[in-house]
Amino acid sequence: MQPLHPENRISPDLAPALGPGLYIVATPIGNLGDLSPRAAAVLAGVALIAAEDSRVTAKLLHHIGARVPMLAYHDHSDDKVRQNLVARALREPVALVSDAGTPLISDPGYKLVRDARAAGVNLVTIPGPCAAVAALTLSGLPTDRFLFAGFLPAKAGARATAIAELAGIKATLVLYESGPRLAASLAALAQGLGDRPAVIGRELTKRFEESVAGSLSELAARYAEAAPRGEIVITIAPPGESPPADAATLDAALLAALADASVKSAVAAVSAATGLPRAQVYSRALALKRDNAAS
Ligand code: SAM
Question: Which of 106, 110, 113 to mutate to test the pocket of ligand 1 (most atoms within 8 A of CB)?
């Protein structure tokens, strides 16, 4: 992480007196200068911090000069841990943080907030960095409608199914990915969505930040040569912004889809991904099946 400017250090005695509640606090995604003064004051002022990894949060607390008790929390934590946090938030201020960025966004917290709301806990959000939104703002892709889809499944079959579900959505798509899996995911996305324009946001807010634009297949080829290091967000243009699929692309998409799905589902997914009429895709799917059976 980039160091915090000394003037941004918050002394614990600057923290306001906080009422009971669950304070959902966003933290930096790589640059400590992005910790808001309010986030720092709340972290310094709560009675307890529910943290994804207390060692990571301890470094953040050290930077703001605060010492606050912490409890490890994951959505798969024992129900008793969650009940205990809800009970404490009813009588004192409790913060929820993840290792980086906005809690609950591909990070723990959903079940805690759900249960806290049901129990009548005062809920307060302290918004701040989120890699998905940061990448979207850099992408130059439409921002009026976007769908955040988190991480794609690791296994090829489940990944193809997940991509087929995204294919017909008329919105910019935002996905998280890791460096080693990036090239394979981009190739699968090109196949399942059509070769749409996309942007890779890497190491955002950090020293080696970059954002690289290209079509999905160009980006897949680029990152197949060398897996990139660091943290990555993929943003993908909505359907309809890429040229119509040619015969070879249609066949490749159909063969990939038919390997894991029925003709009906494969046709639906490929038609949505390519923008080609269902009847045309269906008759080509039948021809490919016939050719396969004959060979
Ligand atoms: N809650 C976090 C948020 O608000 O962005 C996301 C947590 S998720 C477990 C971590 C993933 O977010 C990384 O694998 C990467 O895909 C993305 N990410 C986090 N920090 C990033 C950064 N600085 N640059 C690019 N992507 C980042």
Answer: 106
Tell me the CATH class for 132-236: alpha beta
Q: How far is ligand 1, taken at its centre, from the CA of residue 68, in Å?
A: 25
Q: Is the CB of 203 under 6 A from ligand 1?
A: yes
And the tokens for 54?
A: 């207390």
Q: How far apart are CA 251 and CA 172, in angstroms?
A: 25
Q: How far, in Å, CA of 159 to CA of 165, rounded? A: 10
pLDDT at 254: 82
Let me know if domain 6-129 sits in CATH 3.40.50.2300. Answer: no
pLDDT digits (tens, 9 = 90+) for 245-293: 678 878 888 888 888 888 887 887 777 666 677 778 888 989 888 888 8
Low-confidence spans in the chain with pLDDT less than 50: 2-14
